[in-house]
Structure formats: structure tokens, C-alpha cells
Amino acid sequence: MDYLVRLAQVHEDFRKAELQALADLSGTEIEFQSPHCIVRLPHEDAARHLVSRSILSQGIYELWGSGCTYDELHQEIRRRTVNSWAKYRFSSFKYEVQAYQGKRSMAELQDLIQSFLYLGFQGPIDLKNPEQTFCIFEDCDWGTKTPKRLYFGRLVAHSSRSVIDTYTLKKRKYLSTTSMDTELALVTANLTHAAPGKLFYDPFVGTGSFLIAAAHFGACTMGSDIDGRAVRGKNGLNILTNFRQYGLTDVYLDSFLADLTNSPLRGTSRFLDGIICDPPYGVREGLKVLGSKDGSGKEVRYLNGQPAHLRDDYLPPKRPYSFDAMLDNILAFTAETLVPGGRLGLWMPTANEGEGELDVPRHPCLEVVTVCVQGFNKWSRRLLTYRRLRDEEVRDGFSIKQQQQRTGTGTTANDLNAFRKRYFEGFRGAPAE
């Protein structure tokens, strides 16, 4: 059966990827039929399940017909669905008209709806809570009034797009300037298959936006951050405050202080089902990891007789860090800790095409599933989704310990971060090789 998915008119590059991820999560085979997102599904329950947690869709409709003109549309509806009309004859109902890049006057809308009287619906009209909603979709070119394509469908289910307002940053109690947008955090959780019975981790947790999104879909969550101030919070507010605000404390384990190169989770086992993160881009300040430039400072230091590292106000020493090394470390950590089939959702910045675009980082143990782009002006950020391969899928003889990681050369923040350098150059001129 064909179904029409009504998409939200935002984040166009993410929408198909989200639907495919949700189909993979539910074990549903889908076939995309057209750019208007006509999908072929085995039955109505599969359609409901597909959009039940979608963020970038608005709803899914059983497709009764399509055509380039209303005469063609009516002929198609009669041909395909005449045996279904009696099923809804006495149900309460309403009609809707969705005109993409176009609009209709009230008189025109009434005439359109009257043209469907042959369907024979005799139930009461209910504009607030009908048992059935039938929708006419008009697809117009910009600036034209005549539709180039028409669709007619019966509403099967709404999506979860309304939860964006539930978790909006405008109402969240604990925030920072780098808290991830709610909509994209939820999309990231969908692309990485957050679900009940899974354990998700954010190694750059900040104020916990990604953990909140994964927890909404039922995953158990934990995080870490190099900045102890983000983990501890301020003025009595912290990550736990946000989980309490949304009633999600039962799926929040904890957060701890660490950076990815010194994480206590490394060298353990493959136990994570998902990793979601938006690592620092090193623009406002250069990237750093725990440690000192010359390797000193490992001995215990005391302040007023107390080990300095045990004090609440302790700030550990940090050293400059290469952007490329950070990306390689994230992939290496993912390969070490994700279960087979587990997913990584990694946000990374890049210059736009022709402005020195950065390559998508690769790892022999990880398959790139999707690359979604959010464009700005001269730069963009990409959401990269990876799947941990099973051991038998990894090339013969490969060992994670043998994987070479880039270290970066130079001492300044710009030397260690090509994107930062290009950013402050205004992306002018050819990028350095």
C-alpha cells in the first residue's frame, strides 16, 4: 500500500534520513516512490509505527489517489479505493486542503470539497475531533496558482513533532550558549536509534541536550565533559535538574569529568548502544585536552593540606589539541565501545563546497550510514551517522590498536585546527594543502 508522508518544511537534508532510520529501527521495509515522499509499506500498523516518533514529519496518510488535474485525481480515487468508501460512510469526518507554495480562497476551498461528494460519506462533520480526516494536497510551483500535482489521502497517524515544544530550550532550567537545538537533538536521537533497553553516552555532555533527547525515546543515558563546571552546574542547577524537569530521572545514570583521550571507559568492553555528541569546534577558543604541554604536573599537589585535585574549585591543567586528532579519537573510542550495530551520531563543522570542505572522517570498523548537512553562510555543520560493523564485516587482519591517528602539527590554535583558521580568514582564498 502507498502512503504519503507530510513533511515539515525544515531541515530538508535530514528528513529522508530520519524516516529511513526509523524504518530500520522498526524492521520495516520502505520504498520511496517520489520526491513528495510517497512510501510503500506493508500495512497501516507499519505506517503508524514509522511516523510515531518522527520529528521532521507531520503525519502519514493512506494514499487514495494522485494526478496532474482534478479530473485525473477523481478517476484515480474511483479506480483504487471504491471498495473502501463504505468502511467510512457513517464515521465523523472532515476535509483539509494543504496547498504547498499556493493558497485558495474560502469559496475555492468549498468548491474543491464539494467535488468529492461522490465518496458518499454520511457521518457528521466534526472539525475538532473527527474519526476520519481526508486531505487534499496541492503541489504548486512558486508564483503559480495551478497545481502541478495533486494527492488525496486519509490521515492514518500524526508524528511526534509536537514534543519539540515540550523540550524547548526556552523553558529549560539549565542551559549554556552551546546547548543543542531541541529539534536537531531529537532528530540525532532518531538517527542513532535511541530506544528502551539501550545505553547512550555523550562524551561532550555540556548541559545534557542530547541525553534528554535520547531519554525521551526511552534510552538509559550517561555523559562526561572536560569542563567540570558544566557537569557540576551552578546556582543549584545542573544536568540532573533538566532530567527532573521532564520526569526522566529513571533513565539518567550520571555524568563525570573526563576527556575522550583520558576516559575511564576506554579499554573496557563494547557495552554502549549509542554515542551522540557535538564536540567543540575550537572557534571561540582552541581545543584542549587534559595534560600539560611538557608532560609535567602528574605529581599530587597540596593546597592547605588537601590534595588540590579533590577540591570543588580544582581546574585540571590542559594542553592544545588537534581538531583532526579529536575526530580520530572519537571514531577510535566508538570502535572500542559500541556494540555491533550500535550507532554514533557526530556533529562536525566544515566549510561549504568550494570553500575548503573537510573530508568525512573514516574508520575501518565503522560504516557511514548518512551525512546530513545544515548550511549557514560560508560554512556548514554535518551530522554524520555511523554504524559499528560486526567483527566479520571488518577487513581481515585489522586491529583497533593498529589504527593510525592524526596528531596535528604546530603549537597555535590555528595550526592545530584547519577549520578555525579558515573561519577567521572568512573562508577567503584557496585552503592550504
What's the short story on this structure?
The protein is of the alpha/beta class and 433 residues long. The chain has helices at residues 12-26, 44-51, 70-81, 106-114, 163-166, 182-191, 209-216, 228-232, 239-245, 323-337, 418-424, and strands at residues 2-7, 31-32, 38-40, 57-67, 93-100, 132-139, 149-158, 199-202, 220-225, 252-257, 272-277, 288-290, 302-303, 306-307, 318-320, 338-351, 366-375, 379-388.
What are the key terms here?
single chain, elongated, 7-stranded mixed sheet
What is the fold's blueprint, element by element?
Blueprint: E1 2-7, H1 12-26, E2 31-32, E3 38-40, H2 44-51, E4 57-67, H3 70-81, E5 93-100, H4 106-114, E6 132-139, E7 149-158, H5 163-166, H6 182-191, E8 199-202, H7 209-216, E9 220-225, H8 228-232, H9 239-245, E10 252-257, E11 272-277, E12 288-290, E13 302-303, E14 306-307, E15 318-320, H10 323-337, E16 338-351, E17 366-375, E18 379-388, H11 418-424
Parallel strand pairs: 5-6, 8-9, 8-11, 9-10, 11-16
Antiparallel strand pairs: 1-3, 1-4, 2-3, 4-7, 6-7, 12-15, 13-14, 16-18, 17-18
Helix pairs in contact: 6-7
Rounded Rg: 26 Å
Helix content class: 10-25%
Q: What's the rounded overall pLDDT mean?
A: 88
* Unreliable spans: none
